[in-house]
Design goal:
Layout lengths: L7 H11 L13 H4 L12 H13 L5 E2 L12 H7 L2 H4 L11 H18 L3 E2 L6 H16 L3 E5 L4 H14 L2 E5 L1 E2 L2 E2 L1 H7 L4 E7 L11 H9 L3 E6 L18 E5 L15 E5 L11 E6 L5 E6 L21 H14 L3 H21 L3 E2 L8 E5 L3 H10 L2 E2 L2 E2 L8 E5 L6 H15 L1
Length: 440
């Protein structure tokens, strides 16, 4: 396939046909204060060598801060072999394996992804990945509503704000009612959620660990929800936590969804991500996206195929569970490679996450920070200190990002701090020393 650039005369002809005089007119609907923040005036073209030199010049001025930000995207160690294998052309150029006779390798990898995530979540089946955790949650809620024929959803106030916004957008377009339940000491007010349970509620949504890093205890609540015929949806944003915490399936979750980015994938400025949905057997024919199943071919040999598909390409559109469930195949593949390499050591890595986070929290408390919540946590926690914004800027100048400033979420002088195994004790000690000097 060849690319032929348009000429200036082509451009003018296209503008005339559209009915505008200038390319800038195409953007007149964008507010001026936003539009003027970016210039569409590009410099003259450069040669390949000149571009390379310019980019190197810009790159030389970059600095890489030591970051303690999590909040939904986590920096974990990625073994070099994951990059080496996943960058092979057989993998990164592959698309959805509709033709099993030529896609056994990809289908096998996706099957293993489904198996591994199912084991971690304690569920019967997992789909072949999703866009990301937020859309996976929204699709899970849609499935729960369709299954129960109810349209009211109780959602924890400790759910990740981005997840909630995406869910509310889906709900707005689907005539669903989202009821946000308050929190106590950083966890969902399960008493308030329980009082809401009635025949009109399709499902309850809780994040585990939640946005504030606190670990929710849903063991007794799930039994009460089942008595009311209400589904439990558990969102897991930091999958590394399941190396240490009880799988949601063991305390009664009907649907587990979330984000597997922590396994073998980089933060990469927020994407691409790899969402998933895990379900009990009763949802097998309703789960959105794709499923890979194991079977035997005409010769009796083991084979893998896409199965039980409820996607719009394969059945009538009005019967489809979802229209957008793209399989993040390459990201899922990286997760499979990571989990295959790590194996049982996942528990050790998860324990190291908690240990380092606890060490960091203790250090901050010794410097005058206060713990906002007393609930158990995994690798994230919220601390507070007067004028923390000033301290944050001082630390940034020293090459440290303390955490996520929670002022935008109504929590003044609070920071959501995350520590994973990617950070070392020396880096934590250096941050604490810089913090001590800044306070002094």
């Amino acid at each position: 396939m060849n690319f032929i650039a348009i000429t200036e005369e082509d451009r003018k002809h296209m503008l005339r046909e559209i009915g505008v005089n200038d390319i800038k007119d195409l953007f007149k609907d964008i507010p001026e204060n936003i539009r003027n923040a970016y210039s569409l005036e590009l410099p003259e073209a450069l040669s390949e060598i000149e571009v390379e030199k310019l980019l190197k010049k810009h790159a030389s001025g970059n600095t890489l801060p030591v970051s303690f930000v999590g909040a939904g995207v986590y920096q974990h160690q990625v073994p070099a072999v994951v990059d080496a294998l996943a960058s092979r052309s057989e993998f990164y150029t592959a698309y959805t394996p509709y033709q099993p006779e030529v896609s056994q390798g990809t289908l096998t990898a996706i099957f293993e992804f489904q198996s591994m995530i199912s084991n971690l979540t304690g569920m019967d089946a997992t789909n072949a990945s999703m866009y990301d955790g937020a859309t996976a949650l929204a699709e899970s809620v849609m499935m729960a509503s369709s299954h129960s024929k109810k349209n009211r959803i109780a959602v924890s106030g400790a759910l990740h704000p981005n997840y909630l916004h995406v869910l509310q957008t889906y709900a707005w377009a689907s005539d669903m009612e989202i009821i946000v339940i308050g929190t106590e000491n950083g966890v969902t007010s399960l008493t308030d959620m329980e009082n809401l349970l009635d025949d009109s509620i399709a499902a309850c949504v809780v994040q585990y660990p939640n946005f504030w890093g606190c670990i929710e205890d849903l063991s007794s609540f799930s039994k009460k929800a089942r008595e009311k015929n209400v589904l439990i949806i558990v969102a897991v944003n930091e999958m590394m936590s399941l190396g240490l915490l009880k799988p949601p399936g063991e305390f009664g979750a009907d649907i587990v969804c979330g984000e597997a980015q922590s396994f073998g994938n980089y933060p990469a400025f927020g994407g691409p991500m790899v969402g998933f949905i895990s379900v009990k057997k009763e949802f097998l024919r309703k789960i959105p996206g794709r499923l890979v199943g194991k079977t035997t071919d005409v010769d009796g040999k083991e084979a893998y195929v896409l199965t039980l598909q409820t996607r719009e390409q394969h059945i009538r559109r009005e019967k489809a569970t979802s229209n957008i469930c793209t399989n993040e195949g390459l990201m899922a593949l990286r997760s499979v490679m990571y989990l295959s390499l790590i194996g049982p050591k996942l528990t050790d890595i998860a324990r190291l996450n908690h240990s380092l986070a606890s060490y960091m929290k203790a250090g901050l408390l010794s410097l005058g920070f206060t713990a906002v919540f007393q609930s158990p946590f995994f690798n994230e926690f919220v601390v507070k200190k007067d004028n923390v914004n000033i301290l944050y800027e001082k630390l940034k100048n020293d090459g440290f990002i303390l955490g996520l400033n929670l002022e935008a979420y109504g929590m003044k002088d609070c920071m959501l701090v995350c520590v994973t195994e990617y950070r070392t004790r020396d880096e934590i000690d250096s941050l604490l020393a810089a913090c001590r000097n800044a306070i002094a």
